[in-house]
Amino acid sequence: MIGSARTTPDVYPSRNGTTTSWIPRREPVVYGPTGDIIGPPLDRQSVRSYEESGYVVLDGLISEQETTALRREVESLASSDWVRGQPSSVTEPGSNELRSLFSIHTLYAPFRELAEDPRILDIVRLLLNDEVYIHQSRINIKPAFFGKEFFWHSDFETWHVEDGMPGMRAISCCINLTDNTRFNGPLMLIPGSHKHFVPCVGETPRDHYRASLKRQQYGTPDPGSLSRLIGMGGIVSVESGCGSALLFDCNLMHASSGNLSPWPRTNLFFVYNAVSNQLVDPFSGLPPRPDFIATRGEPASLGRR
Amino acid sequence: MIGSARTTPDVYPSRNGTTTSWIPRREPVVYGPTGDIIGPPLDRQSVRSYEESGYVVLDGLISEQETTALRREVESLASSDWVRGQPSSVTEPGSNELRSLFSIHTLYAPFRELAEDPRILDIVRLLLNDEVYIHQSRINIKPAFFGKEFFWHSDFETWHVEDGMPGMRAISCCINLTDNTRFNGPLMLIPGSHKHFVPCVGETPRDHYRASLKRQQYGTPDPGSLSRLIGMGGIVSVESGCGSALLFDCNLMHASSGNLSPWPRTNLFFVYNAVSNQLVDPFSGLPPRPDFIATRGEPASLGRR
Question: What ipTM was predicted for this assembly?
């Protein structure tokens, strides 16, 4: 390890009961030379838009054939009692339906292959200007009729406090395995919110992660800060087709409504972290979360085997 | 009273633990002579569309001046500890914020006046072809960030089982006191669903109404029936501006998502029932719900004082 919470100063303090003022983002959003263009699907304009708003949608990145095969894998996992009983799986509050399954890139070859796919990896490497590894991967299922909402949060806030991610040099890639429509709880984003670190109130309870993955109660901003962020950037609802991908900055504020429709919403999440940004001890001072939620130790960069 | 549960046969049995098959609607949707046109805002085409889909949106029915004044009344009521402590008020699950306040047409003059406004009353009388009275009235507040969802249900199912409304001859009028947008939990409807009575499973617990107004657990259809209804009619999200009104049939299946936005969604509801359709004893066999939820006894028709 190159550092620990004791030697790494906490430049983004949160949940310590005192700090409430926003902290301006210290790191760049796009680390690569801004003149670089890597051609479709990402051109210079998309890179600028990503820098400004914190996200970019890549329509139709994955073919229908691929999404059909991946969806079958997900359905097979979701219907397995054994899988639902694993520590890496999270069920819906109040039912035994699978809500999330973590560490899919280590457990299942098709998801590992997708995580290393150059269509995603090349873009992520360009934006972060570094080798990358998977900090976290998961299937997110929002079941028909009963899939619950997720309140506003910055992933980075959680990864910093609970996992010890030092700075903002990570990108989430969300791949739609179903259409994400206005009716099935699509991701909502606050454009521009990635430029501000919003400390959260309340301390982190021990072993908070199991409850938080079902329903988040800590690591959520105060309503005043949210109103201010939304007043500045508005809300964008990412309605996009099956096979589309969304890349978004680790510090972008996002949420999603419940799913009251008969159409399940199934997405894959891969979080790419720069190898130069590997984890230190959690800034909460508590023990780190399990490896299936946050990859620890010397990371093996992707696509360089 | 003209009847009781003992003498009035239950043509729409529900929550009795045995019935699950749909029952075709026995009553008309539009009772008035279909050739009638009452001019703007409702013309012959709107009446046909209402008959077919079960709802009609009347854009800009109420002026900005009126909505501003009514919103002030609502804010004053919502901030009153005394009001929130009344039996006719319902607070959000897990907080003391006002979610609903019932019987506003009996308690507060400005709401009584609106309930009797010819802009609404003339249309309702035409569609129901009868004198009408207010079966139920309420303010529905969906607070910013924390307003909770409401699951799919037909109001008539509840009014029939819990209040003893004999047949489908009632219309709900929802008046927007704020914009209803895709972000603040607008009403979602299943067009055409008003033509089918979908019996619900489970029996009604005694004094169910207090819990059900916070979070509905009984009187909701099974997922299979919902999927079938949505497969036939789809889902419409009623996004409409402040001052617009939505008229919908008492048996139209509807729901609404939670509000994760900083914009509260405040609507007024007036339920107009035909005087020929006045309540009998509840078909559940349980004692009736309080008068502030369902007007009982000889009704005084509106606008005929």
Answer: 0.88
